[in-house]
């Protein structure tokens, strides 16, 4: 599942299963690059869920999660934050983290 | 032509290209139109995929999504129920390859880290991929690089093309410039130049914020500026960015000398805020031509 998630719905949406929370803004170039890479990963792995979190439309995200820059990714399992990543990364590095959080080491 | 800037002669990029292409991770070609369209298609339909169970006698193929029961001394492979899509090796590449061809109810075994791993297929699902539509594109709420909403499939394809080509060429430029700057360092900066660049940027931010958001940065209070730009005023914002102006001067000078252009009028960074972007586009054309020449050989 992929969708835009406002801050007040974040907990309910990401409560179960594996989620990537993508904290971004519309005018951030690296966010667009990362979004393209995430799109490929999601297309190839439909069991992965993505919560798109626009920190300008939902400013409460910034304070709640101490977002220091965009893009920031949180990798979550059953509502618990397992890994975080700042900045756009190559697909291989993202897949490595996804694998680690989804399935364990 | 400004004479105080060094390197009046033209920098020959040839040897730097040769050194770059000796790198293992060098970009050797740009994405094709077919690859770019496929990327756009995946991005548009990614949240419209439907997974449907396969009939019991149908074998799994790569890219199918399987529910498994696994058994092993390794915790990662000892699960009552785990969902895995075959093909990218997110769970385990060897196991995923072994599962291709198996039907629901069948099992396979592999060895991981010297430990036997057994997996039984509980269910196989295959995704159906719809054709992208303009309505799907609008639902993505994506903005292009000029901050306009993208509303059509063709518009989205153009956005992906710009994104991926720029990304590939920027990577080449990054490595080329690292080597060029070793031979042509710029270490002395004129404070007046940096001040002029700051004024240009101040005018640019003021105009863009007014046009795009209807916000006059010069009319905001200190508190409002803190919230918007994390500084007390537009002047304070510009003052923080002298290191960026130094880098911009450096990049402009090197690009001008690679391209054989004079530092005057429309190509003088002290006259036009957008010069660096324009020079970079010209440099991109140079790199595209070099890639095409090398691929033709």
Element order of chain A: H for helix, E for strand: EHEHEHEEH
- Please state the average pLDDT score of chain B: 89
How much helix, percentage-wise, in residues of chain B? 40-55%
First-residue to last-residue Cα separation of chain A: 24 Å
Number of domains of chain A: 1
| Low-confidence residue ranges of chain B | none
CATH superfamily placement of chain A: Glutaredoxin
Shape of chain B: elongated
Task: List the secondary-structure elements of chain B in sequence, H or E.
Answer: HHEEEHEEHHHHHHH
Class by helix and strand content of chain B? alpha+beta
Beta-strand residue percentage of chain A: 25-35%
User: Spans of chain A with pLDDT under 50 lasting ≥5 residues?
Assistant: none
Q: How large, in whole angstroms, is the Cα Rg of chain A? A: 13 Å
Tally of individual helices of chain B: 10
Summary, kept brief:
The complex is a heterodimer of chains A (105) and B (297). Chain A is α/β, with parallel strands linked by helices and 105 residues long.
Summarize the structure in words.
The complex is a heterodimer of chains A (105) and B (297). Chain A is built from four helices and five strands. Chain A has helices spanning 10-13, 29-44, 60-65, 91-103; strands at 2-4, 18-24, 49-54, 72-77, 80-86. Chain A is globular and about 35 Å long. Chain B is built from ten helices and five strands, in the order ααβββαββααααααα. In chain B, strands 1, 2, 3, 4 and 5 form a five-stranded antiparallel β-sheet that branches. In chain B, β4 and β5 (115-128) form a beta hairpin. In chain B, α5 packs across α10 (275-296) and α9 crosses α10 (275-296). The two termini of chain B are 38 Å apart. Chain A binds chain B through residues 1-4, 26-27, 29, 32-33, 35-36, 39-40, 42-47, 50, 95, 98-99, 102-105, and chain B through 39, 42-43, 45-47, 49, 51, 63, 65, 75-76, 82-85, 87-91, 127, 141-143, 145, 147, 160, 163-164, 167.
């Amino acid at each position: 599942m992929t969708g835009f998630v406002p801050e007040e719905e974040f907990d309910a949406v990401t409560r179960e299963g594996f989620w990537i929370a993508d904290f971004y803004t519309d005018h951030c170039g690296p966010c667009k690059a990362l979004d393209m890479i995430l799109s490929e990963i999601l297309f190839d792995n439909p069991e992965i869920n993505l919560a798109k979190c626009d920190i300008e439309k939902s400013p409460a995200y910034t304070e709640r999660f101490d977002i220091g820059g965009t893009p920031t990714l949180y990798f979550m399992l059953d509502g618990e934050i397992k890994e975080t990543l700042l900045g756009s990364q190559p697909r291989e590095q993202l897949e490595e983290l996804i694998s680690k959080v989804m399935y364990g080491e | 032509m400004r004479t105080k800037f060094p390197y009046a002669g033209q920098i020959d990029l040839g040897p730097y290209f040769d050194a770059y292409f000796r790198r293992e991770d060098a970009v050797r070609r740009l994405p094709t139109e077919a690859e770019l369209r496929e990327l756009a298609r995946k991005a548009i339909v990614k949240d419209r995929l439907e997974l449907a169970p396969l009939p019991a006698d149908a074998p799994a193929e790569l890219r199918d999504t399987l529910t498994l029961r696994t058994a092993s001394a390794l915790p990662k492979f000892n699960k009552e129920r785990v969902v895995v899509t075959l093909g990218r090796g997110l769970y385990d590449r060897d196991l995923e390859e072994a599962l291709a061809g198996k039907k629901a109810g069948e099992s396979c075994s592999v060895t991981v880290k010297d430990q036997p791993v057994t997996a039984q297929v509980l269910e196989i699902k295959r995704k159906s991929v719809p054709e992208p539509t303009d309505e799907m594109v609008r639902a993505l709420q994506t903005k292009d690089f000029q901050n306009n909403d993208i509303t059509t499939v063709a518009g989205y394809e153009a956005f992906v093309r710009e994104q991926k080509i720029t990304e590939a060429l920027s990577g080449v430029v990054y490595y080329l410039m690292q080597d060029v700057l070793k031979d042509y360092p710029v270490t002395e900066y004129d404070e007046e130049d940096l001040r002029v660049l700051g004024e240009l940027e101040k005018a640019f931010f003021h105009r863009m914020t007014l046009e795009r958001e209807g916000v006059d940065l010069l009319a905001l209070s200190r508190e409002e500026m803190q919230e918007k730009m994390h500084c007390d005023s537009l002047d304070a914002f510009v003052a923080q960015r002298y290191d960026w102006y130094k880098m911009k001067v450096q990049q402009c000078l090197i690009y001008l000398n690679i391209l054989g252009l004079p530092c005057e009028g429309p190509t003088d960074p002290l006259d036009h805020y957008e010069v660096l972007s324009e020079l970079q586009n010209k440099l991109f054309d140079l790199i595209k031509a070099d890639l095409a020449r090398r691929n033709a050989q």
